[in-house]
Amino acid sequence: MDKLLEAEELAFLSELMAADGDESEGLSVQIPQASPLVPILTQAKSLNLVAEFEHHLLQFSVRLSVSEDMHPELVFDAPEIMEAGPTHRKWRFRPDASLKILDQHGNDSGLNVVDLADNSVSLQREEGDESLPDQMKLQLELPDSGHRVPLSARRVRELANGVAAYQLELQDSAQEDQLRWFLFSQHPARQNQARPPVQGDLLAPLESLDNS
């Protein structure tokens, strides 16, 4: 069961997220107990809300739950953000400022994040041109919250200018939700920006990750 969200509803969800603090458990919105939607939603095999823009799609998995005061509520999980086109692919956050990425022991990794999706990352050394390892255990420190998301990175392609593309594996769904909420928090300010021109073949190698 799908419903299209307009920009105003998406802004409302963004405000909820900002006010909710820890987003790992999802956002919740209470609905009237007598609503005719309740019996319909309880029978649904799956429920998704889709926010569609000119260039992007945001898909929220939604589930019906019961609050502590026994009111029915809709719980929104972190959205999957896709770039629209002939084939949809993951939207990638390109940070304006450096994201702190640490080694598995919590020390500075000496790496810069070029772009980041919920299943892939492009990395570059801060200094030097030594080739990056095939596999790495890393921690991404999220701004503001300071949460560290453990990442297992497997190199899939060497790109131009010392950049390497990695496929990501996360420890569990909670870590995946943390990363997706972070990406969602960065998306609204960028949703009306035109997609930057692709230089060379920088992004093309990552498209295969989205279809795997």
Strands, total number: 13
Order of helices and strands: EHEHEEEEEEEEEEEHH
Sheet/helix structural class = alpha+beta
Biggest sheet architecture: 7 strands, mixed
Q: Per the principal axes of the C-alpha atoms, what is the gross shape?
A: elongated
* Secondary structure: helix percent: 10-25%
* Overall tally of structural domains: 2
Beta fraction of the residues? 35-45%
Count of alpha and pi helical runs: 4
User: Over all CA atoms, what is the radius of gyration?
Assistant: 19 Å
| Through-space gap between termini | 25 Å
- As residue ranges, the low-confidence spans are 1-5, 18-23, 193-212
Mean pLDDT: 78
Q: Tags for this entry?
A:
elongated, Thrombin, subunit H, 212 residues, 7-stranded mixed sheet, 2 domains, disordered N terminus, alpha+beta, disordered C terminus, 6-stranded antiparallel sheet
Task: Walk me through this protein's architecture.
By secondary structure, the chain is an alpha+beta fold. It folds into two domains: 2-90, no CATH class; 100-178, Beta Barrel (Thrombin, subunit H). 20% of the residues lie in helices and 36% in strands. The strands form two sheets. Strands 1, 2, 3, 4, 5, 6 and 7 form a seven-stranded mixed β-sheet that branches. Strands 8-11-12-13-10-9 form a six-stranded antiparallel β-sheet. Strand 12 and strand 13 form a beta hairpin. The radius of gyration is 19 Å and the shape is elongated. Mean pLDDT is 78; it is low at 1-5, 18-23 and 193-212.
